[in-house]
Amino acid sequence: MVDDRTRKYMFFYQVLSRYREITFGKIISVNDLIEEVSIKVGDEHKFFWSFIKNKEKYLVSASPKDFPIIIKDTSKYSYRGKAHNIVSKYAVLDIKPEKVRTFREIIDDMTLFTHSNPDHQKLSAIIALAAYIDRINVRICSEKEFGKDSIFECIAHLKGDVCIFNPESLPAIEYRLNNKVLVLNEIGTMPKEQRTVVLKALLLMGGGNNTYDKAKRSTALNNSQDVYDISDLSVCLIYNPSYYYNDEDMFFDNAFKSPALKSRFIPFFFTGSLDIKQFKENINVCLEAGVWKDELIKITKSILYYKEHKYEELKDFGGRFVEVKNKYVNQVFGRHQLHLDRILNALNLYCDSLEEFERYATILLKAHTDYDVKNNSRFRGGFNGRTN
User: Fold this and answer.
1) Which of 29, 161, 292, 352 pairs as cysteine with 180 (C-beta 3.0–4.6 A)?
2) What secondary structure does DSSP assign to 162-217, as a single string?
3) Poorest-pLDDT segment among 215-219, 324-328, 337-341
4) What is the pTM of this model?
């Protein structure tokens, strides 16, 4: 049996990247899509998605839900005065949902890395997976080396429809709305002139709407479609605590002074850090990718299974689960209740007993209430540096 020290190699980013290459070859993911454009063919307009691969421009008539795809055949086409490749034939990369790994096994594998606060590490992973199998809006505030984006990165390598990036403008965000999970990293550091329009966009994304109307930026050459389907989109905002910033206006709560926005994204404050030394191990990336290929496929299949069967897989815990869950949900307010309810459902999928569920739920609720306490303490004189 492979020990945990070796098993964690499958979630080294280099190994995950190599795994995708050897397993799927030259695939195009939803993250490669730039914008949807309209091209007049005869008397009618047809819609295509544009993307760039290996410095070549492509157009494909496919739904974002079909991605990732593998290009089979192309033909040259002149569009906007530049050469493009029309994808005339492609194959949909189809991984069938199958329960070959439990939710607990998936989370435990993704959190094998040594961490100074394993409870918070585990809960952040459960939130990340909840964002994929359900629809939630969440704010995660933690120390720099906590690893708040690490599980999202792992899922992104496995599925390709999770996008983590530091946005600088509204168009940069809109171009990525076809993903299942959109993770906006340090959004408070974006240019101040962009904040007003981004605030409006975040309010729309966080409001539970099924569609998003793109901001108008029409030009003579830009005949793009204006509506995105966001009915299954989770939006996660991740950033550092208030006391990390020399410019206090870069902290999210100060950059976006909107009670309505904050009410739509439930906040958590996590502490602790990953042991960075463990990522300096010299490993054979190609070898490890081959070793863990089948296991990573099983994990991917199982994630898709839980996305389809998340409610059927909930444990009853002797008929007490709903009552106990509501005890925690009723301690938060407004729209936060919906998102905490869905996160607690994911926690249910992880836990083996009601006692374990209550232990983690109590820690999670404290992480929620700690958000305001920890981020405001600097200005009350109670904090002068990093927490441990």
Assistant:
1) 161
2) EEEE---SHHHHHTTTTSSEEEEESGGGS-GGGHHHHHHHHHHHHTT-SEEEPPP-
3) 215-219
4) 0.87
The dihedral built from the CA positions of residue 317, 323, 324 and 330, taken in this order, carries a sign that is positive
Q: How many helices (H) and strands (E) does the chain have?
A: 13, 13
Total of domains in the chain? 2
Structure tokens at 138: 């969440």
List the domain range (segments joined by +) for residue 177.
134-270
Kindly state whether residue 54 falls inside one of the protein's structural domains: yes
List the CATH number of the domain containing 252: 3.40.50.300
For 143, 240, 259, the CA distances from 245, given in Å and listed in that order, are 12, 8, 21
Q: Which residues pair with 37 in a beta bridge?
A: 48, 224
> Are 35 and 158 found together in one domain?
no
Instruction: Looking at the structure, tell me whether residues 151 and 250 fall in a common domain.
Output: yes
139 shares a domain with 236: yes
20 in a structural domain: no
CA dihedral 91, 96, 102, 108 (to 10 degrees): 0
Residue 188 is encoded by which pair of tokens? 């408070």
pLDDT of residue 6: 87
Same domain, residue pair 75 and 140: no
What is residue 382's DSSP assignment? Answer: S
- Alpha carbons 357 and 314: distance in angstroms, whole number: 12
pLDDT number for residue 164: 96
Bridge partner residues of 338 (DSSP): none
pLDDT tens by residue, 285-327: 999 999 999 999 999 999 999 999 999 999 999 999 999 999 9
Looking at the domain assignment, is residue 242 inside a domain?
A: yes
